[in-house]
Amino acid sequence: MPPEPAPSPEPRTAVSRMQPYDWEPPSASIARQAGVPEDQVVRFDTNTFPWPGATLDQLPPQPLNEYPDTSYRDLTDAIAQYTDVPPDRITVGAGADEVLDMIAKAYIDGSRGVLLSRPTYPMFQILSGMAGGMLDEVPAIDLRLDRATFLERARRADLTWICNPNNPTGELLPLSFVEEVASVAGGVLAVDEAYVETSGVTAVPLIDRMANLVVIRTLSKAFGLAGVRVGYALAGPAISAVLRRVRPPGSIGVVSAALGAQALRDLRGMRQRVQQVVEERARLQRELASAGLEVRDSAANFLLARTGRQVAPRLLEQGLVVRTFPPTSPLADYIRITVRRPEENARLLKALKAALSPTGSP
Ligand SMILES: Cc1ncc(COP(=O)(O)O)c(C=O)c1O
Fold this sequence. Notes:
Layout (H helix, E strand, L loop, with lengths): L12 H5 L9 H8 L7 E3 L28 H11 L6 E4 L2 H12 L5 E6 L3 H9 L3 E6 L7 H8 L4 E5 L11 H10 L3 E5 L3 H4 L13 E6 L12 E5 L1 H10 L7 H11 L2 H24 L3 E2 L6 E5 L4 H6 L3 E3 L11 E5 L3 H15 L6
Parallel strand pairs: 1-11, 3-4, 3-5, 5-6, 6-7
Antiparallel strand pairs: 2-8, 7-8, 9-10, 10-12
The structure holds pyridoxal-5'-phosphate (PLP).
Pyridoxal-5'-phosphate binds next to helix 4.
């Protein structure tokens, strides 16, 4: 008799229950599906910048046979210079996502309440669910944060997540509101500022006064290093010490740490890129509006436009990938468009106008 198959091991309940991240498909499979060459695929769905903030040829030879300096001294010093926050208040991670995970690991368990808005950055829900937290979600009103309800519920939450500006709506909350949430919150307030370089609004000056505040940043957006995986947290001494306890010792590779430090030392370059994206964002918003679409104001490097559900598949046929949302989402009729190079945005606009026109021509 063949042996009984071994029962498959069950993961933790929180892991079976969570809704995993809906990963963006790779460009190669989009190209195959759309029947276009891979170099014709343009990613308007990942909210990255179209130019890298540092390149490998700028680096001196790296000690690839050795582990990274686990204190990440050089990278941390570069972040300190950029943010004007001392190194002992900086915790680095392999992308902002790893930093968010450290926060969830440190502050969430099955007995703790977690507050977030909807829609917001999906990783808040995923990481909080995985850590076993009790989730409390405040639905947006007309895609804007319901501030009164959020403030009220923050009083009871052990951890509150805010994304500012918010992905995917682009909404920017004023610093006064963030401060108000921090001052009433029953626990930690985590503010994800992945898009701070385009918004110009930061809660960092508050971390000295507000011991429950942690700000999360990334080099994946304005610094143009999404493939490199560097993010960081800025917080007062208490939260920083806790994050250091949970931080994996060497998750940022030596090449990534060196590229991150290199990009942080070219602030002029970063600011020029931000300026270009902000100008392009205004142009794209005007053009989308003049094509008759509802477009939300955005403080980030993307725009949310109400196109209905027919447009995204038409764009995809030409290799133009925008972010869509599930039919159950309040954003089901919207697409999120990353602002890219002028010529790429022009290509998108032309295809979009054609997709909107009854005759199919722009
Ligand atoms: C709000 C927000 N936080 C974090 C991330 C992920 O950042 P990282 O690439 O540093 O993990 C993203 C990426 O889109 C984001 O939109």
